Amino acid sequence: MTKSKRNDNEEILEDIMNEEMEYDPVHIIFHLKQRMEERGLTQTQLSEMSGVRQAAISQLSRGNIEKLHIPTIEKIAAAMNITDISQLLTFEAESEIMSMSNPFNIKYPQR
Length: 111
Prior knowledge:
The protein is mainly alpha-helical. The protein has helices at 3-18, 32-39, 43-50, 54-61, 70-79, 94-101, and strands at 26-30, 89-93. Helix 3 packs across helix 5. It is elongated and about 65 Å long.
């Protein structure tokens, strides 16, 4: 490796090391409400079809997700004949969610 190439690489590495790494949290977006509406299903009907408590379906359809229990998701997907998990849930970076809700990039004070 030539001396100038080595210096360039060292500078790049130093820049990377000196940059403050930004953390962009990822959120799970659950699309249960939309899938139920498309199929004309009520929470009670989906509960009966899947064997999942209606209260759990209610929480998931409102996006109130603290913990995802994989067997619950599997039961719901099977009951709704969903084979592509992206129809039921997606992962979104917080920055993407915020840019969708703030298209003019308005800066708000940090809490």
